[in-house]
Design a protein that fits this description.
The complex is a heterodimer of chains A (408) and B (150). Helices cover 38% and strands 17% of the residues of chain A. Chain A has 14 helices and 17 strands. Chain B has five helices and three strands; from the N terminus they run αβββαααα. Chain B has helices spanning 7-19, 69-82, 87-101, 108-111, 127-149; strands at 34-39, 46-54, 57-66. Classes of the chains: A alpha/beta (408), B alpha+beta (150). At the A-B interface, helix 12 of A face helix 1 of B. The structure holds pyridoxal-5'-phosphate (PLP). Pyridoxal-5'-phosphate (PLP) is lined by residues 29, 91-93, 121, 123-124, 169, 173, 198, 200-201, 221, 362 of chain A.
């Protein structure tokens, strides 16, 4: 059974206050709190099991290797992939750069096209800008509909015979619409186009099945799913990983090399994991996935949907609030308060102990689409409650956003 | 400062300078001004400061651009404070302002309306907004002085 009060007990951060008030954390799209099991497992590595992986014949090292392998297997199970298709990176940003420089850079040529959308996070734009510059490939943007959706119709309209890569978020971090990814991969594959998914805002909230989605690459970060910072995943289909080149080279990814410059790399996934891994991060990620699986991704999805519904219904009653993504499916609400600058309202909410994000949220190309310079964003996690939403709703009713600057 | 300004007055001063700024202007003869572009990454602020000096006197000081209420009102108030002052006096005013923001002892009288920002330090994320204009102007005056000394 899903019991949010029991779940909250596992998160030490809920004991923390902000501005002397009960902390209400609605910036979960940026990062999430960590349950004590994750913190303990990170500590376990440092306190009881410190040693490097793949580099020794003693027990400590053996146990670390075992945990890394188990974690790889657990991640694979979590997204329905094969163990050898799971690459440890430092996070989504690193994962996308690895595909861009390891795959895009080698297989794109002048005149080829890379398709993105205007709603992409900087991490799924700038690497492709660089690859386009290096290879002479062109960047094209798939238009969004008026309300901010990515439709298969617009994908089909934008694809040309030169399109080689479609790189898109499975759910965008500002608007929170799920994209019809299965239809996109089906269509793309019929044209020999590779689909590279940014799953940073998707994997933490939805049961992910890469086989069913038939996606070619998928990136995500542990810290957005109750795991530690500095660890993330790149999933890639085995046959693509076999073609992909390493972005980083060094220790841990080669089988042999000699003074004649003969080099043999390890097979994927190790081929892409040069240098000492974030081992503590992997320990933390393991506990995070165990935590999520124990609650169940279906339960998480359902509960978060209820939270969003509850918040939307209450916010709609406040005539001073403009919501930009009313019909979105992901647990994100993007809005503004009439006549109050997003940052000013965010500061006011801070003074009430409520953490929300204001600004452009790293999707800087979206201004032209939303036609506002900045927005407020609340993003929920399964540990949030309707009671916390009520605190937000009450604070949004208050008019005196300058209140926080008065002397007390 | 609570002794001198009521909450209602603080609010009024900030909102006045935000909604009807005195020194926010579109400048057509940019070439006649020293111009500095200032922006912050965590807020929306993206402003230009325009400065014209004659000998040691600040003749004109304007700003333009996109800014939140704190940036807009603090920059607007700053412009009013420094016009017709010597560069040295302007720097003194700015330094007193920085002391206030850093919660140090400061001279209330020379800051005039700018004392409405005395509590900004309680909202850490907004300190940058309250100082972005002041910092820009301070750097403009200082680098001009260096140029003249060189
Ligand atoms: C959609 C999306 N892509 C990529 C990223 C980057 O993730 P990270 O900073 O963990 O690499 C984020 C994080 O905000 C995101 O929301």
């Amino acid at each position: 059974m899903f019991n949010v009060n029991e779940i909250r007990k596992k998160f030490p951060m809920f004991k923390v206050k902000m501005q002397g008030k009960r902390l209400v954390f609605f910036d979960n799209a940026a990062t999430t709190f960590k349950p004590i099991t994750v913190i303990n497992n990170i500590n376990k590595y440092y306190v009881l099991q410190t040693s490097n992986s793949q580099r020794g014949d003693y027990d400590l090292c053996y146990n670390v290797d075992k945990t890394i392998l188990e974690t790889r297997g657990l991640v694979a199970k979590f997204i329905n992939a094969k163990t050898e298709e799971i690459i440890f990176t430092s996070g989504t940003t690193m994962s996308i750069n690895l595909v861009a420089f390891g795959y895009g850079m080698y297989f794109l040529k002048s005149g080829d096209e890379i398709l993105l959308t205007e709603a992409e996070h900087a991490s799924n734009v700038l690497p492709w800008f660089n690859i386009a510059k290096i290879t002479g490939a062109k960047i094209k943007f798939i238009p969004l509909t008026k309300d901010g959706r990515l439709t298969i119709k617009n994908v089909k309209k934008t694809v040309s015979k030169n399109t080689k890569i479609i790189a898109i978020a499975l759910v965008t971090n500002v608007l929170g619409f799920y994209v019809p990814i299965k239809e996109i991969t089906l269509f793309a594959h019929s044209k020999n186009i590779i689909v590279i998914g940014d799953g940073a805002q998707y994997v933490p909230h939805k049961r992910t099945n890469v086989l069913d989605l038939d996606i070619d690459f998928l990136s995500f970060s542990a810290h957005k799913m109750c795991g530690p910072t500095g660890i993330g995943i790149l999933y890639g289909k085995k046959m693509l990983l076999e073609k992909m080149n390493p972005f980083l080279t060094g220790g841990g990814m080669n089988d042999s090399f000699d003074i004649k410059k003969n080099v043999v790399y390890l097979d994927p996934p190790e081929k892409f994991e040069a240098g000492t891994l974030n081992i503590a991060g992997i320990f933390g990620l393991k506990a995070a996935i165990e935590f999520l699986m124990k609650i169940g991704m279906k339960n998480i999805e359902e509960y978060e949907k209820k939270l969003r519904c509850y918040a939307i219904n209450k916010m709609k009653k406040n005539k001073n609030i403009v919501i930009y993504n009313m019909g979105a499916e992901a647990p994100i609400i993007t809005f503004n308060k009439k006549n109050v600058f997003a940052q000013d309202e965010a500061t006011f909410l801070n003074s009430r102990g409520i953490a929300v994000r204001s600004g452009k949220h790293c999707a800087k190309m979206l201004d032209a689409f939303l036609k506002v310079a900045a927005t407020l964003r609340v993003s929920f996690c399964f540990y949030n409650t309707t009671e916390e939403i009520d605190i937000l709703i009450d604070a949004l009713k208050e008019d005196n956003f300058l209140d926080v600057y008065y002397s007390k | 400062m609570s002794t001198t300004l009521s909450n209602e007055m603080i609010k009024q001063i900030m909102l006045d300078h935000y909604q009807n700024p005195t020194y926010k202007k579109k400048i057509s003869d940019r070439q006649n001004y020293i111009v500095l572009h200032a922006r912050s990454h965590n807020c929306i602020d993206n402003i230009h400061i325009y400065l014209k000096t004659n000998n040691n006197i600040i003749q004109q000081c304007f700003w333009d651009g996109e800014a939140c209420v704190i940036t807009a009102s603090s920059t607007d108030i700053m412009c009013g404070l420094v016009i017709n002052k010597t560069k040295k006096e302007a720097c003194q005013i700015i330094e007193e302002y920085f002391k206030m923001i850093e919660e140090k002892k400061f001279k209330e009288d020379i800051l005039q309306e700018a004392i409405v920002f005395v509590n900004v330090s309680k909202q850490l994320a907004r300190v940058k907004c309250a100082t972005i204009g002041f910092n820009a102007l301070y750097n403009m005056i200082k680098s001009e002085a260096e140029k003249n000394n060189a």
